[in-house]
Amino acid sequence: MPRQRYAHLDALRAIAALAVMVEHMVGDLLRQAPAATGAMRMLAGSVIENLSLGRFGVALFFLISGFVVPFSISGERPLRHFAISRLFRLYPAFWLALAALTMTAWLDADTPRTATVLANLTMAPPLFGRPWLSPIHWTLFVELLFYVLVALLFFARVLRHVGILLGLSLALIAATVLPVQLHVHGIASLPAQYLGMHLSFLFLGLLLRLWLIEQRQRSGFAASILILTQIAGLLLVTRFSLARGDNFVMEGLKPVLSAYMLAIAVFLAAIGLEWPRSRLLARIGLISYSMYLFHGTVNGLVYRILPLTGQFSDIGTMLLCVSLTLLLSWLVYLTVERPMIRLGRWISSRHNPLPARPSQFADAVHARSQSPLAPRDADIQGSAIHRPSACRAVAPDDGCSPTREAEPALYDIAPASHASDKLVGTILGTAIAAVALSWFALLGYVGWKIAESL
């Protein structure tokens, strides 16, 4: 299947980013405008009660990432290349956004503690018990964990194993639902978290790719099972989340469930119908990461001059917020994101050996075709043999334009043979063992508590 059809995912990114921005502006309006006054406030309240645009945008982002990111692991040193590309893709713009947040906090005489800033620089402040400088950034930690899991699956050579992917996704949902149910029924008081539920949407994107693009056996069935389990999991944690006020189901079951279902429907339509076909949206999609990082800061600065009132005049304020965010995001993309992406690509390719001669390459392709992990003949089109014409479709985070030719992607899973990959594999193997032991410990503890309650 030609790679060009994936180019529509850039436009889909734009829709997701704009949905998140609108959700946050609507939330700002409800918090800042006087209660029960103004037509805009009433409209905002109606939107919030029926559809969580923010959750829709986040779910859409997760599906897209799961669809494309795992298959950017390529090259002679795939894990090294993957780690470097993710590092230079995500962190430079993120650090700039943190600098802007720290500066605005300093202007408000509310400078965050140094330990909090340092923890945020890692993109994983929850691991250090520190809050986010901006609560908007929580999804980045979820993406980071997904990259780690994808690297583990790649090294274990099961990145395309439908059964393992489904089992892992169901286990992630159980990691959210099980502690909640144990708490609700008074069996045990375990820490409740929603990382597993969020990560399952990234893996849903991966399964949907295996089904719709690579046509792996049972992948469609696995994706359907995962969707039904996600809905059931959401139903099982809704009451607990609302009672605790932890913001996972902040608006209520109806808007959150509607958002998830709409995100899945829109994503399937984008893949199946090659939609949306919009050059403008595709260009906005290029800067969607910066939009996500900076729109909260821009909104806060605009509200200082034009506070929200709940009246129709707020439409102008919101349009100004969107326009300034687009302008700033484009500047960040040109001056930070794209140069850093190119630098990461240059660093990751510095020590790559020269490409094989045509005869050697043909032999390599033939040898890989004998592997059970190699793609079928129908999947080879658009891979290393047929270079894609739409780079952004396959590697949406590499900084190239939609019409620029990309480096070939590796569709078959090659074993890690280089020393650096072996070191990474050792580390990842240790992590797998630790996760497995923690699961056994959790199951043992749960069994003990159940036995005590009998």
Explain what you see.
The longest helix is centred in the C-terminal third of the chain and has 36 residues, at 314-349. It is built from 17 helices and no strands. By secondary structure, it is an all-alpha fold. The radius of gyration is 23 Å and the shape is globular. Residues 1-5, 354-417 and 431-439 have low confidence and may be disordered.
Contiguous helical run count: 17
User: Which value, in Å, is the CA radius of gyration?
Assistant: 23 Å
Q: Give the N-to-C terminal Cα separation.
A: 57 Å
**Total E-strand runs:** 0
Structural class: mainly alpha
Please indicate the percent range of residues in DSSP E strands (runs of 2 or more).
under 5%
Descriptors:
disordered N terminus, 454 residues, mainly alpha, 69% helix
What's a quick, concise take on this entry?
The protein has 17 helices and no strands. The protein is mainly alpha-helical and 454 residues long. The longest helix is centred in the last third of the chain and has 36 residues, at 314-349.
Topology summary:
Elements: H1 8-32, H2 39-50, H3 53-68, H4 78-107, H5 114-121, H6 138-155, H7 162-184, H8 195-212, H9 219-244, H10 253-273, H11 279-286, H12 288-305, H13 314-349, H14 358-369, H15 377-380, H16 391-394, H17 419-453
